[in-house]
Amino acid sequence: MCTLEKHGSLFILTLIGDNHEHRLGPSLIDCLLSALSQVNSQAINGGSALITVAHGKFFCNGFDVPWGQSDARSRLHQMVESFRSVMSALLSLPVPTIAAVSGHAAAGGLVLALGHDYVLMRRDRGFLYMSEVDLAITLPDYVAALMRSKIGGSAARRDVLLRGMKVKGEEAVRMGIVDSAAYDSEESVVEAAVRLGHRLAERKWNGEVYAEIRKSLYPEICGVLGLVSKTIVASSKL
Q: What is the mean pLDDT of the segment spanning 163-189?
């Protein structure tokens, strides 16, 4: 599950779950879709930002494999297809988005983090991990497109996807996967994300224009997701 709270100009989306792994099962996926729909409807006029957080050891530990074990092929396909809608909604939001990754982000959890405009990590704890090569699972088309869009270096993509490398914060910065990892606690990551969120929200960009520029910046993943771009000319504030 998740919660969505509005604090001034910031939407705070918090992943929650009884197992503290915040796995992407049907309940969390539905909750994310509902929360992102609320942000989309409330923030079109700009002056806002979204921050996604989670508490504990994990930011998100990927798809809910235990739930899918009784009928792995059907249920895994269901989760993958449902999560496609989450990524579409996230990449269409009319606000800047920030992932405060204060714990492990594995598989779908890393995909969720990379769907944000900015990713902040802890320096002392947590890693990024795409487990598919170790679990013998191929990548969905939109996940592969996201990795090509958000991880710029071919060597970095190779190590993440073909070696199943567990990447810690400072190394993730060097590899160009995350923006910053200069924080030593969960609280400091969230505080940094809030500061960044306020700075971005203060710009009061036109939300519809912001979303369209994001789509144009990542045409491959947006094309795979079926997100159609449009031209907007809004009144200038300059």
A: 96
Complete domains list, the chain, with CATH:
2-225 (3.90.226.10)
What angle, 0 to 180 degrees and rounded to 10, lies between the N-to-C axes of helices 141-150 and 72-91? Answer: 40
* SS3 state of residue 101: strand
Q: Rounded to whole angstroms, what are the CA distances from 16 to 19, 61, 148, 189?
A: 9, 12, 29, 17
pLDDT tens digits, 136-171: 989 999 999 999 999 989 999 999 999 999 999 999
State pTM to two decimals: 0.94
Of 47, 7, 66, the residue nearest 199 (C-alpha): 47
Distance from C-alpha of 68 to C-alpha of 167, rounded to nearest angstrom: 27
